[in-house]
Design goal:
This protein is an alpha+beta fold and about 100 residues long.
């Protein structure tokens, strides 16, 4: 039987996950767009900056594995960020990208 979980607990569990190659969390970059609990299942919407995001599977698997390690069932869907969301993603991540160079 699945563990009873709250939205706040899910967010705390996922908070440390960073975008691959960037020091910012998925939350800081707007990648985790929505978190809810439906029938005791973590329902997560992940917004990818581009349709062909090379790290899409890594991001989804990181979120899924982190929750399943704690016996939390997941339902993860992906979407593509809006133009404004991509702009925020780039502005936020830019600091770290420049530090790599």
């Amino acid at each position: 039987m699945a563990k009873t979980v709250t939205v706040e607990e899910i967010k705390e569990i996922l908070k440390p996950i960073t975008y691959p190659g960037i020091k910012f969390s998925l939350f800081e970059l707007g990648v985790i767009q929505d978190v809810s609990v439906v029938e005791n299942k973590a329902v997560i919407t992940i917004a990818l900056p581009f349709a062909d995001t090379p790290h899409a599977d890594t991001i989804v698997n990181s979120v899924k594995e982190r929750l399943e390690e704690r016996s939390i069932e997941t339902d993860i869907s992906t979407t593509i960020m809006t133009r404004d969301q991509v702009q925020n993603f780039v502005v936020t991540g830019r600091e770290d990208w420049f530090s790599l160079g």
